[in-house]
Structure formats: C-alpha cells, structure tokens
C-alpha cells in the first residue's frame, strides 16, 4: 500500500472555509466524491449533512481516507488508492467541486486553491507514525499555550488533547472512539499498526522525541 499526505492551501493563503457550513460541505464532498461515478450536478447535489454515510447512499470507493483535518486556509488528508488512478480522480473532483460550491456561494470566480495539490509519498515507518500525529495536531495552532507544538513546546498536554477531541473538523475524535464523521474514514490500518491512537497522541504531546518507535515494515507494504 502506498500512503500519501495531501495538502492544499487557499490561493494567496486566503481563507477557504468561511464558516461551519463551508466545512460541512467539504466533509460532505470527501464522502460523495470518493466514488467511481463521475462528478455531476445531479449525482453530487448537496444533501443534508446528516445524510452523509447513510446506508442507502451506494458508493464504490476509489481511495481510502486514513486521516484528515480542515484548517482555516488549508486542509490535510492521508490517503491510499483503492483503484488505479483513484487518487488523481478523487482530488480533481474534490478541489473542483468545492471550488464551484465556494464560488457560487460567495459570488466570486477564478481559482480557490494555491497551485497544484501537494502530494507526499510516505517512505519510512518513522514518517508514517509522525504524519498521523502531525495531521491531528494541526488545530493546536488555535490553542493558546500550544501553538509551538511543532517545536515540542506544549504547556499543558492534557488540555491540548482535550482540545483536539472537541475539534470537530478532523479525524481525531473518530480515532478516539467518538463518532464524528466515521463514514468518510478508514481507521483499521492505523489501529492495527499502532494500537491506541489516543494514548499515542498524548505520549507524543508529552515527549515527541520518545514517541518515534518504528513500525514493522510489513505495515508499509
């Protein structure tokens, strides 16, 4: 399995989610566009967010989404392909579909995202473990006393963890057993490979240097 960290920012670092309605729409698109069907206004008309993941919505997924996080001006995804060419198709539909929605809602035109989507192949087991934490810890940029988390400086790790659990626009809550948007997510791979993600996150917050245990190479095949 090849695992990719996907990152895209707003053009000129502009805000791409103005409110929770925009964020909910993007989550909806993560579900709807993960399908072999071509994107169209009919097939992908916006349903109520409560409809996301209902069993009557049939899909044939083209990617597995292992982790995600929405920030004000960018997003992070951790994705693997299920079908050949699935990642390119999914990202094209996702970026185009959300841009069309955003431009229509805010009466604007032109590009929304900054250039080509950044796609990073996860090469090593150390990077594999780090990237899950990195994606989930991004919302700490909004928490006073935790904004230096990238430099291993978090004033209160317990408070930081509680903040992450309550942040609704990432996959962290689902990994902690609190159903948020489980229908868009594939958690089995990471749960089987690193065990208790909630416990590992707290350990990582307290001492990132000691949380770099290597995963068995078989999990990267």
TrEMBL record:
Protein name from the UniProt record: Transposase IS200-like domain-containing protein
SUPFAM superfamilies according to UniProt: Transposase IS200-like
GO terms, biological process: DNA transposition
Pfam families on file: Y1_Tnp (PF01797)
Superkingdom per UniProt: Bacteria
Lineage, highest ranks first: Bacteria, Candidatus Kaiseribacteriota
All residue ranges annotated as the Transposase IS200-like domain in the record: 1-138
GO MF term set: DNA binding; transposase activity
